[in-house]
Amino acid sequence: MATTTPTGAVGSENHLRRDVGFWGLMFVSLGSIIGSGWLLGALTAAKLAGPASLLSWILAAFMLAVLALVHAELGAAYPIAGGTARFPAFVFGPLAGFSAGWMAWLQAVSIAPIEVEATLSYSDHISWVHNNVTMLHDDGTLTGTGLIIASVFMLLFIVINIVGVKLLSESNSITVVWKTAIPLLTIVVLMLLTFHSGNFTAGGGFMPFGAHGVFAALPAGVVFALQGFEQAIQMAGEAKKPQQDVSRAVITATAIGTVVYILLEIAFIGALDPSHLAHGWANPIGKGDFGPYATLATGAGAAWLAWMLYADAVISPAGTGLVYTATSSRLSYALGREKALPKPVAQVSKKGVPLVSILIAFVVGEIAFLPFPSWQSLVGLVTSATAIMYAFAPVSLRALRLRDPDRPRPYRLPAPQVLAPLAFVSANLIIYWSSFQAEWKLGLASVLGLIIFAITRLTTPAAERASLNWKASSWVWPWFVGLLVIGALGRYGGNNTIPDWWDIVIVAVWSLLVFYVAAALAVTSGEVDAAVAAEEAELQAAPDLNLAD
Known about the structure:
Blueprint: H1 22-33, H2 37-49, H3 53-77, H4 83-123, H5 127-132, H6 144-163, H7 165-193, H8 210-226, H9 231-234, H10 242-271, H11 292-299, H12 303-337, H13 355-368, H14 375-403, H15 416-433, H16 436-458, H17 470-473, H18 476-489, H19 502-521, H20 525-540
Helix pairs in contact: 1-7, 1-10, 1-12, 2-8, 2-10, 3-8, 3-10, 3-14, 3-15, 4-6, 4-12, 4-13, 4-14, 4-16, 6-7, 6-12, 6-13, 7-10, 7-12, 8-14, 11-12, 12-13, 14-15, 14-16, 14-19, 15-18, 15-19, 16-18, 18-19
């Protein structure tokens, strides 16, 4: 039946439906955290850091946990769709909001096709599939058959998203139960059947590649695997009880994902054949790199677990791809609402889903299936884009606390004077470690986004255009240019001009300088109040939260 507002008016077709409860939000975030990353993350990290890869996971978990707590406060205080794009807009104006939202959209829209390609890559290593269905060329790109199968996956994501967020939440919840259970089962089986404690000092000692290896492992798969907690934030506009559920969902999903990944790394290192480590960590698993846990399970005599892992190699990436299809559409919807992208992307269907934005995600996904770089080579790029998106949150939190101090905050970040700047520094370090190559490519992508933004502004009637607030957003490009310069001179894809450890100090100092300058440049309290009030007026006009189709 038709949805209605609390006052009985027919619900507007310009609003998203509020159908998602705590478990749905938590599973959306957890389903994003546990994707294809868990199947390859431990192997990639071990190659770069050896046993000290365990430190990489712990460090990444700490950095992302701080960022997650920042997002938890923002998501509960300002429960809106596509929040990562909207929080900066409240305090730094539409230009800064677009910069954050564009980067968030780039990483989100890229992950669904990447996860589909991961699914096909894993499936291709099953002997029957490899012998009877040719999905990949020798260089890992898709064949015609592979493109058709990949398109079917993307179409399935699109159909589920178009049917409605409630189906998305329910189908994702079922998938996430499986996705969480399989890694936990893998941990238990490997630790019981084959665990060599000597592996933690083999192949050159606990830290064979020094601190550089620990840091290099972060953007090579570790941060990529742990990211995704913000998905509950992006879908807060569709939450039944956003003030109550969003922060709890983010914190719970982050905690579960952290524990699972650290235990997986311990189980992985302990299960390796010691003979493979005699000459170092270049090839710790031997053959079967596309299914390292399956290889270890087979070697331990648990062939049944190997088959479950091959099944999970399809389910986990596909489940994550489904969630990110939804996320990318909510982000473009939010940017359309802000008039940063053309109006059609903000239109929603009768079922309350952003139909045009979903279709755009499908088109971009199909383009990504063309002969572009492999899953592994895109991980650093996606990680850097995610870190840029994350970086806007802590500086927005400080500015919003200063400009909007009386806002009810169901969850409050503890010790914000310490954790908020620490979160910003953490995000900037992840960007730096992701390599200079990733940074300059994202710089070009940002320029493309600004061109689209400018065209949209020029074609929007002057009366509908909000002020750009040049002063408030004036810190964004100097901040990013500074990171590019440090990256070019640094030790991760740069020319190694800056000595080891000094590069980290310089990134931290630059981050803190930008953090406090940005907060001081924020718009006035009155402008923040007006922006938030306009958003609240939209939320109050949304359809009744409890009525079904």
